[in-house]
Amino acid sequence: MAYIYDEMNIFARILRGEIPNNTVMETDHTLAFRDIAPQAPDHVLVIPKGPYVNFDHFSNVASDAEIVDFYRTAGTVCAMLGIEPSMGGAGYRAITNAGDNGVQEVPHYHLHILAGRNLGRMLNRV
Ligand code: AMP
Questions:
Q1: What is the DSSP secondary-structure string of 31-80?
Q2: How far is the CA of 11 from the centre of ligand 1 (A)?
Q3: Which of 12, 13, 61, 113 is 20 to 30 A from 5 (CA-CA)?
Q4: pTM higher than 0.90, yes or no?
Q5: What is the pLDDT of residue 111?
């Protein structure tokens, strides 16, 4: 099966400037902006500007430059938020959802950076 990218997904529309966003940081390859429905005091989404549906698509297909830029940007966002444990920050969680079992809602790769409160255990056993 191939990766199929939906050009009408909401993050594609944000990248085209059709929908506003609360930008935290922008580079040539990456955009970081505040989640519209934050699940923690700080909830930032980091997305590549290229058309990648999820983590494995991005990891397998994106260029080295895109991948380096993406993770450097995510790291810089952590620094901007003052949440890095090694710098005296209180920590954070960086997570990404993919596909049905991951309960991914927006089919454009994004990393959630959540911080500002104790986030509890990562998963509840069901
Ligand atoms: P996921 O379930 O991992 O696909 O997460 C999608 C995230 O996108 C959710 O946390 C939504 O609140 C967020 N979201 C949806 N639309 C927007 C938007 N227009 N601006 C910012 N965040 C959004």
A1: EEEE-SS-SSSEEEEEEESS---SHHHHHHHS-HHHHHHHHHHHHHHHHH
A2: 8
A3: 113
A4: yes
A5: 99
Q: Yes or no: say if 33 and 23 are a contact pair by the CB < 8 Å rule.
A: yes
Closest residue by CA, ligand 1 atom 18: 36
**pLDDT, mean of residues 90-105:** 98
CA 112–ligand 1 middle distance (angstroms): 9
For ligand 1, atom 13, which residue shows the shortest CA distance?
35
pLDDT at position 82: 98
Asked if 110 and 46 count as a contact pair (C-beta separation under 8 A), the reply is: yes
According to the model, what pLDDT value does residue 125 have?
76
Q: Which residues contact ligand 1 via a Cβ below 6 A?
A: 10, 19, 21, 35-37, 45, 97, 103-106
Give the tens place of pLDDT for each residue, 9-18: 999 999 999 9
Q: Decide if 110 is catalytic.
A: yes
The CATH code of domain 10-115 reads: 3.30.428.10
